[in-house]
TrEMBL record:
Belongs to the BRK1 family. Keywords: Coiled coil, Cytoplasm, Cytoskeleton. Gene3D superfamilies: 1.20.5.110. InterPro entries: BRICK1 (IPR033378). This is BRICK1 subunit of SCAR/WAVE actin nucleating complex.
């Protein structure tokens, strides 16, 4: 039965390697998703800031034209 035990051990090692790699992929994807979410929030903030700058520039330009 030594042959069967060797086969079981080899299968166990193979399963451990696959499980470990699946965990690594899952960690990477979770990290990527969190980063993507942070970038989306940052993009929204930058868009709002750009709009405020454009409004301020238009307001200042209009004020300069009046004087």
């Amino acid at each position: 039965m030594a042959g069967q035990e060797d086969l079981d051990w080899a299968n166990w090692e193979y399963i451990e390697i696959i499980t470990s790699n699946i965990k690594k992929i899952t960690d990477f994807l979770n990290s990527f998703d969190m980063s993507r979410s942070r970038f989306a929030t940052l993009r929204e903030k930058l868009t709002a800031l750009e709009q405020r700058i454009e409004y301020t520039e238009a307001w200042v330009t209009k004020g300069e034209m009046l004087t």
